[in-house]
Amino acid sequence: MEPNRVKQILSSSNEVEVTYNGVSVWIDKLNEDGKTATVHLRGPLEERSIVEIHELKEKQ
Q: Membrane-spanning residues where (predicted)?
């Protein structure tokens, strides 16, 4: 995923489904380096991880 698309998803009022390694995640923020994002799993666990944005996939 490109940094601009991550920013669009974060500012969107629509829910956009994003996956990381096949698992649905919420994007919390695009990190300052522009190459990583802080995400957490959808569901009861709110464990946050920093991932490379090129590994995020938008579910169509």
A: none
Taking only the tens place, the pLDDT of each residue in 28-42 is 999 999 999 999 987
Strands 36-41 and 18-20: unpaired
Distance CA(42)–CA(2), nearest Å, equals 21
C-alpha neighbours within 13 Å on the C-beta side of residue 55: 15
For residue 42, the one-letter residue type is R
* CA distance linking residue 31 with residue 36, whole number of Å: 6
- Domains and their CATH numbers in the chain: 3-58 (2.30.30)
Q: What pLDDT, on a 0 to 100 scale, did the predictor assign at position 58?
A: 96
pTM, to two decimals: 0.86
Find where tokens 């995923």 sit. Answer: 1
